Every structure is written in structure tokens, then in C-alpha cells.
Amino acid sequence: NVDYEKPAFWDNLLEGKKYYLFFGTMNYIKGIHTVCKAAELFLDKYPDRYIVLLGPNSNKLPLDDNHVDSYGLMEHLVVRHKENIIFMESIYNKKWLNYILREAIACLMPSRIDNFPNTCVEAMANGAIVFGTNGASFEQLIVDGENGFLCERDDYKGLVEKMCNLES
What we know:
The chain is an alpha/beta fold. The chain is built from six helices and eight strands, in the order H-E-H-E-E-E-H-E-H-E-H-E-E-H. Helix 5 links the parallel strand 6 and strand 7. The longest helix has 14 residues. The mean pLDDT is 92.
């Protein structure tokens, strides 16, 4: 039994928006770079959708010869749809997080490496569709096309293709 509570900020930030959710630490291991690369391509096809990034920022993401934080990477890679990207800090109110998970179209979790993806279990417990990565333990929880979707590691085009399949 999962408890839900509409977050205090909902009406001002997410009300009426159709969004895909990335939640967790926004770092390279968790695949934030794949989400950033996929965002522009996906939003070109579905400009009425949003990408919500919820969790702690990371400042060690490679970009050219430098390192940037996740905001900087998204800023660099998403040019035409910046208004469709919503960054949120971590939420520690479990009922609020459950509400955000429940309202998402799906959760994006293209991890490069994972042991047992607790975020996947949490999302699925809230009825969310999960896009996970083959070979990063998600295949132990997801049957591709049945209860979620599996993509290959670092394959942002494959992620976009699966997202588009869900939309059609």
C-alpha cells in the first residue's frame, strides 16, 4: 500500500504537465548524460512533453575537455526545448515523491551500472513505467515491452525510440 500526497509546489511547477521523470543522483553512472542527449531529440517529436530531473546534482560530467554539472550538461545539449526541462532538488517527503512518480508518464533510468536498482523498484511500486538499461540489473525486474522497457547502455537514440513507441 503506497501513500500519496500532492506536493505543496505541484500547482506552480507540475500541474497539467505531461512528463518523464529521472530521479536519483544525476551522475554519469546513473546515465544522466543519456537522458540529456535523448531530451532534445525526444522533445523535437513531442514538444508538449517535459523532462523532470529530480535529485542531487553532479559536477563531474564530461563535456568536451572539461567537466560540468548536470545543469550545465543539459544546458549544452538541449537548445530548442530548455523550457521543457525542469530541475528539482531531492524530495525527502515520501508521500510527495510517490505522487510525482505516480503522475509521470514514465521513469527514465538508463544506468550504466547498478547492483539492485532501488529506484526501479520504488517507481514500479508506484505504478510507473520504467525505462532501464540492459546489463545493469534492470533486466531482472523488467520484461521489455511488458512491464517496462530496456535499452542498451549509453544508447540515447534507442531510449528515444522506446519513448516514442510508448507515445504511439
